[in-house]
Specification:
Helix content is about 85%, strand content about 0%. The chain is mainly alpha-helical. The chain has one domain.
């Protein structure tokens, strides 16, 4: 045991310190303005935007009451009728829609600190990405979607459909399982309530 502390441990400390000095001489981060630095910035901003859009669409679509959509599709302004009919057609596969939006949100939120790690230390990347996720992808989209949910969801249904088909290898089986376990959401049951 004494031999470990007198020969092995100092040798191990020496190897670790030499490795640390060699790593300190090599720059860890790309210089500001280099091509890969701009790619990291662009991907980080893109991840924030995508996560914010997914949150806003999730709230905007799922906050719509089926009865309100039915009423708007019959008695609203022409724009409200258009938005309500688009949302109603999309919500016929609600579990698939939810799964696609949440998978894309999770991808964006998980990729963000990976690219930020190339620009700053890991612990700083985690703190910055946590603050960005809280502000840019939770608070602001929730405020926007609560005020303009119908317009946002109605005008972005094509994006949601595209994401549903893009993520279908993962989200379609997941939505089938949710349909089986929880039952399908029936938007058209509101027609009976109106008559």
């Amino acid at each position: 045991m004494l031999r470990f502390f007198t020969t092995t441990l100092p040798g191990l400390v020496s190897v670790i310190s030499h490795a640390h000095l060699a790593a300190a001489k090599k720059p860890r981060f790309d210089s500001t303005g280099s091509g890969s630095w701009w790619v990291d910035i662009g991907v980080s901003v893109g991840c924030c935007f995508m996560a914010a859009l997914m949150t806003a669409l999730n709230i905007g679509l799922l906050a719509q009451d089926p009865l309100s959509l039915e009423v708007l599709s019959k008695t609203g302004t022409p724009r409200e009728k258009k938005y309500a009919s688009r949302i109603r057609s999309l919500l016929t596969r609600q579990n698939w829609c939810i799964a696609a939006l949440l998978v894309m949100n999770a991808v964006a939120v998980e990729v963000l600190p990976l690219f930020m790690d190339h620009m700053v230390d890991s612990w700083i990347a985690i703190i910055i990405s946590s603050v960005l996720v809280l502000l840019c992808t939770d608070i602001v989209p929730t405020a926007i979607a609560s005020l303009h949910g119908l317009r946002l969801a109605g005008s972005m249904t094509w994006v949601v459909r595209m994401l549903m088909y893009l993520t279908s290898p993962i989200t379609l089986p997941l939505s089938w399982a949710l349909d089986y376990m929880l039952g399908r959401f029936n938007v058209f049951s509101c027609e009976r309530m109106l008559s």
